[in-house]
Specification:
By secondary structure, the protein is of the alpha+beta class. 41% of the residues lie in helices and 20% in strands. It has 13 helices and 17 strands. The radius of gyration is 28 Å and the shape is elongated.
Length: 428
């Protein structure tokens, strides 16, 4: 959410930031609405002061037995004016808040300009993409193994669901355990197990509501299924003042995530790449404004370590202004190499949201020697998505006979198993 005070003082800078996202200037309309609201506040305050004065005059007149009827009529009129002004001011305030909370975050100055993903900038590349002859895609490998069942899942839940079986189910679970152990033991994140159902104000705090409601699954209880554990974890500091000495807070969680995939009709309809339900290890940091840029670099390094240990080729991209998410002021994407598709595909997205979410949540911080509070900065990232990591392992470690080598770092989580073989697993 944007700071109206900043817009008042820096309208040109605000519009310039929006222009970098490809949006038209909005400061004039916002400030006109703000001016109307403030004018009503000023009128109401003046009428309230006058009413207080007249009320005193009425008392003085009555003390000496005078006629206070005209003064009493003025008080009644002032009362009506104040009530009308307050009602109009509240309505304009709601309209202003809605405008401010549906405008995307302003990009950092170093974010590259661009319209879409074609304008993203490669920051670094790790590992050499495999160029084996006729590599298979994950769904062909999984179905041949008898361990990836799309038809069975469709019978149960419809499109964009997958049923994993046997060692592929175990491999995905192993990926999750490996990532949690890495982030908690080596990277200093605290493991959390948050609720999977949240109220609407929680989704407002992280920016999914009201703009992106169609992407969510809503229950008849008023709860929503979480699209990512960023939502509950970030909101743990909502409506609170966290001592600066306790920051940064670093949290991680492995949870199911639920997304309607609105607007993705026809995209990645086959396979395990784009699902309504998937598992993800999330990274969330709450930090001071002074440290968020450094924390962002640290977070992307933690996510990259996952792929390095899995020995998967990847590249890290800095998203351009036209491809960033709504709440982000800067985003890095990690794209893993998928030989079956002969391309890189996103497996992690790490964003610095600045104080954008914190303003929505009223999440603040204060050092022990300071009187004033500041909004915290919030960051989130995938560390990483399990389904896409499973796809990457299957395609990069596939053998000519359709078997899949298990990465060395995952073998302890698989009971020492080194190879997923079709015949052996079908029998199981």
């Amino acid at each position: 959410m944007h700071d109206i005070k900043f817009i008042r003082e820096n309208p040109a800078a605000f519009d310039a930031g929006l222009a970098r996202r490809g949006l038209e200037p909005l400061s004039a309309d916002i400030l006109a609405l703000d001016e109307k609201r403030r004018a009503l506040q000023t009128s109401s305050q003046a009428w309230q002061a006058r009413r207080n004065e007249v009320s005193k005059e009425i008392g003085n007149v009555k003390k000496v037995g005078g006629d206070a009827s005209q003064l009493m009529a003025e008080v009644a009129e002032l009362k009506e004016k104040i009530a009308a002004a307050d009602a109009n001011e509240a309505e304009l305030g709601q309209e202003l808040s809605l405008r401010l909370c549906t405008i995307p975050n302003i990009p950092q100055a170093d974010v590259p300009a661009g319209k879409d993903s074609d304008d993203n900038v490669e920051t670094r590349r790790v590992g050499e993409p495999s160029r084996s002859n006729n590599p298979k895609e994950h769904f062909d490998l999984g179905e041949a193994l008898g361990l990836m069942d799309f038809e069975g899942a469709a019978k149960l839940a419809g499109a964009r669901f997958t049923l994993l079986k046997g060692q592929l189910a175990s491999l995905e679970r192993a990926l999750g355990q490996f990532m949690l152990d890495l982030h908690t033991r080596e990277h200093g994140y605290m493991e959390m197990n948050p609720p999977l159902l949240v109220r609407d104000h929680v989704l407002f705090g992280t920016g999914q509501l009201p703009k992106f409601e169609e992407d969510l699954f809503k229950l008849n209880t008023g709860h929503y299924l979480i699209p990512t554990s960023e939502v509950p974890l970030t909101n743990l500091v909502a409506e609170a003042i966290t001592p600066s000495e306790e920051l940064p807070l670093r949290m991680t969680a492995l949870t199911p995530c639920f997304r309607s995939e609105a607007g993705s009709a026809g995209k990645d309809t086959r396979g395990y790449l784009r699902q309504h339900q998937f598992y993800k290890v999330e990274l969330v940091s709450i930090t001071t404004p002074d440290e968020s840029v450094n924390e962002h670099e640290r977070m992307i390094a933690c996510a990259e370590t996952v792929l390095k240990k899995l020995e998967l080729p990847f590249r890290t991209m800095t998203l351009c202004t036209g491809d960033m998410g709504f709440s982000s002021q800067k985003t890095y994407d990690i794209e893993v190499w998928l030989p079956g598709q002969n391309t890189y595909r996103e497996i992690s997205s790490c964003s610095n949201c600045g104080d954008f979410q914190a303003r929505r949540m009223n999440a603040r911080t204060r050092a022990k020697d300071e009187k004033n509070t500041r909004f915290v900065h919030t960051l989130n990232g995938s560390g990483v998505a399990l389904g896409r990591a499973l796809i990457a392992v299957m395609e990069n470690y596939q053998q000519a006979d359709g078997s899949i080598v298990i990465p060395a770092v995952l073998q302890p989580y698989m009971g020492g198993l080194k190879l997923i073989e079709a015949k052996r697993l079908k029998a199981a």
